[in-house]
Amino acid sequence: MKRESLLNYIYRFFDIIVLIFIVFDFGYDFDENFTTAHVASLIILLFFLLLFNAFKFIVYKFKKGKNIAFVNMVIISVLLVTSLIVSLFHINHDYHYILQRVKPILEGGLILYFLLRLFVLVRHIYDVYFNPAIVFVGSFMILALAGAFLLMLPSATTHGISFTNALFTATSSVCVTGLAVLDTSTDFTIIGQSIILVLIQLGGIGILTFTSFFAFFFRGSSSFKEGLNTKDFLAHEGLKDVFRVALNVVVFTLAVEIIGALFIYFSITTNQDINNRFFFSIFHSISAFCNAGFSIFSSGLFDQSIRFNYFFQWIIMILIVFGGLGHHIIFNFFKYIKTYILELFSKKIIHKRVPIVTLNSKIVIYTTIILLFVGWVFLFISEYSNTLLDHKTVFGKITNAAFGSVTPRTAGFNVVDYTQMTMPSLLFVIFLMWIGASPASTGGGIKTSTFALATLNIFAIARGKSRIEIFGRRFSAESTSRAFAILCISLIIIGIAIMSLLILEPKDTPLLTVVFECFSAYSTVGLSLNFTPNLTEASKYVIIAVMFIGRIGMLNLMIGLLRQINHQFYEYPKENILIN
Q1: Per residue in 206-219, is it b (16+ CB within 10 Å) or e — as a string?
Q2: Which of 225, 332, 441, 533 has a beta carbon 3.0–4.6 Å from 361's, enabling a disulfide?
């Protein structure tokens, strides 16, 4: 045990060395970035890590430690062998050229190695402090702070960045909001944009899900505490198969993002204004699926070179909808289609009377379809003689109106100038932003199921019913109470934010601009009436807090902090109060 404890301390020492190397390597631009000594030190570091992991693999007695050491050995070995193959392939060139080809491979592998070690650290935090809500909130907070410090590195920006702007950008990325105080295209280098992209990916799926994915993938199991943490984040009902769900979520997400990136790449092959089409495709695919709304165009998707590319816009819309529906709905319908096909081709399988499509899936799908259709029709009529005049074809007008209906559902991409939209359109966009996406998805807002439940409850009360019934099922009283708690909390938080900004901003600031900004921040949408870059220093921290609360959910935090296991064996006398 003492030997293993000593090895853990050495492991942490190597982690610090790797972190320092990555920070100085990517964070600072040195004139001699490809010198022999620079790459040689990187190779020596990898050799030391390989030898240390091999020694740890031999010494460790527990399967957990052996598996982690073995995975580290495989990663480092693949890096060194790949570098050797690349060197041999370019053996006819001078050493400077060879080092330029080898160095990115080694650096990429070193980052992957460090991320795996970071996930191990997160797993260790599970054991130190156990409270699912606190771990969930803490993971986002740590990720935002770490992202802010990374964005402050000299090579991440073109002209430097203040801590406030770095924290705002990192929080907006982690909370998949998309509000930006700086121009993502011109103020950030490709390293800074890559940092933003990683923050979007980790924030969209959740670092807890990634941690559980690697735990299950490399070990095939995980701890009970991890199960509770991941269960809460994934909105999974039980502990059974929770880690397999986490694995499926990560695999599904990466698969959809890769396919989306391929379609985006082929849709922009003729666009000469995009220098790096490969990075552009990956960036916008991840940003769209995670409902982040970040773009590496200064004008967003309203840029003249892309705003009339309707095929590209439909790809973005599909990615937004898939990310906004959530894995629960996708997996549920996949299970339904799988069962339907099996029953169709196999006569021996008897049809199950138990419904495969859950009530949650039906509510989410019907609500999403209604909101998308109503939004499309409303914006098509409202903007037909306004912003839609720029599009000469009927298909272009339909696409633009459809995009306008999809993107407020917490995506935040803009294909129109929102400052030029009519007042009814802006108010309707605020309404769509407030509702947001679906539960257990990458989007924000009060969620479609909450809105549907509140609407159904109104009709139930009007009909004199004591419970909400639909599709042969009834909603639990707990679901109804939670829905109205979320509605009230959202309006309270947004109301406080609006009052704060009106106090902190100049007196001539339009009320609609402030309201639009606060709803966008709380619902993690990212749309703005060009107000975000002009926020005062104090107002930026207000929006940071609103984005953070909107992403984690104030109710989740309150439940984690205040809920107590309390079995009440008594009941007070009931008395009604006057309402309306």
Answers
A1: bbbbbbbbbbbeee
A2: 332
d(CA 380, CA 399): 10
- In whole numbers, what is the pLDDT of the chain averaged over residues? 78
* Per-residue pLDDT tens over the stretch 236-268: 444 445 556 667 777 888 888 999 999 999 988
3-state class of 15 per DSSP?
helix
C-alpha neighbours within 13 Å on the C-beta side of residue 166: 20
Query: Contact 244/92 with Cβ under 8 angstroms?
Result: no
Band of the pLDDT at 322, cuts 50, 70, 90? confident
Give the pLDDT confidence of 441-484 residue by residue, as tens digits.
Answer: 777 788 888 888 888 888 888 887 777 777 777 777 777 778 88
Q: Report the residue count for the chain.
A: 580
For 294-314, the pLDDT digits (tens) are: 888 888 888 888 888 899 999
What is the 8-class DSSP label of residue 579?
A: -
CB 42 within 8 A of CB 35: no
User: What torsion, rounded to 10 degrees, do the Cα atoms 205, 209, 233, 243 define?
Assistant: 140
Residues 6+ apart with CB under 8 A from 454: 483, 484, 487
Q: What is the 3-state secondary structure (H, E, C) of 147-196?
A: HHHHHCCHHHECCCCCHHHHHHHHHHHHCCCCCCCCCCCCCECHHHHHHH
Quickly tell me which residue has 């990325």 as its tokens.
Answer: 173
What does each C-alpha distance from 17 to 38, 58, 396, 447 come to in angstroms? 15, 23, 54, 43
